[in-house]
Amino acid sequence: SQVIGLIGAMDEEIELLLSGMQTARKTVKAGITYTEGMLHGHRVVVCKSGVGKVNAAVTTQILIDRFGVNSVIFTGVAGAVNPELNIGDIVISSTCMQHDMDVTPLGFARGIIPYQDISEFAADSRLIQLAEMACRARGDRYLTGKVLSGDQFVASRETVTTLYTEMGGACTEMEGAAVAQACHMNGAPFVVLRSMSDKADGSAHVNFAEFTVEASHRSHQIVEYMLQHF
Ligand code: ADE
């Protein structure tokens, strides 16, 4: 039967999911705690990956191998890259790509993983639709677009401009593309949901501190709606 993996990078991003779960069982593997249980009538496995692409990739592979997860939803916050986005707005991944994959000296465009056919990983259309339905029903401002991931907290206007004009990003964060690539390698559908905590500019550190809890909760509420309508 269907098992849904729910990942966040930080405690703020998963604490509400955990508090709503029934018959929870905890297992630790590779230092990550996986909590199995029921949420809105669905079998789910909730976990905190920790920050960054390696944590996200390992966590996703374990969710698939060890816990038999057949779809993955990532919930969390991000820095806005598309200038139309404000703090609190939602980005639903159409695709995910690593902005720090840089083999440009060998002639590959930024983000391209050399010698493999796909570098931009497409989210599942049904999960995208479900997330869009949640945003519309709740009246959230949202955009379905490219999520750019890298092992960097982006806090400069120049970088944001590059990520937007050169890579067409909607937002930037530190896990989505790793989850996406691990899911692609295993044939598992995924979607990344991110609420904007900052604009990845010179004020990003201040805004992130101020808005992360609120933005995390917004992203969490969308996941709840999705599970209710899954
Ligand atoms: N997550 C939230 N804001 C971010 C930023 N500016 N850069 C990377 N990850 C983020």
TrEMBL record:
Q: EC no.? A: 3.2.2.9
Protein's name in the database: adenosylhomocysteine nucleosidase
Keywords (alphabetical) are: Amino-acid biosynthesis, Glycosidase, Hydrolase, Methionine biosynthesis
Concerning NCBIfam families, the annotation shows:
MTA_SAH-Nsdase, PRK05584.1
Origin organism lineage: Bacteria, Bacillati, Bacillota, Bacilli, Bacillales
Alphabetized Pfam families for the sequence: PNP_UDP_1
- Give the record's pathway: Amino-acid biosynthesis; L-methionine biosynthesis via salvage pathway; S-methyl-5-thio-alpha-D-ribose 1-phosphate from S-methyl-5'-thioadenosine (hydrolase route): step 1/2
Question: What top-level branch of life does the organism fall under?
Answer: Bacteria
- Which residue intervals define the domain Nucleoside phosphorylase in the entry? 4-227
Q: Which species expresses this protein natively? A: Paenibacillus enshidis
Return one GO MF term.
adenosylhomocysteine nucleosidase activity
Q: Which Gene3D superfamilies match?
A: Nucleoside phosphorylase domain
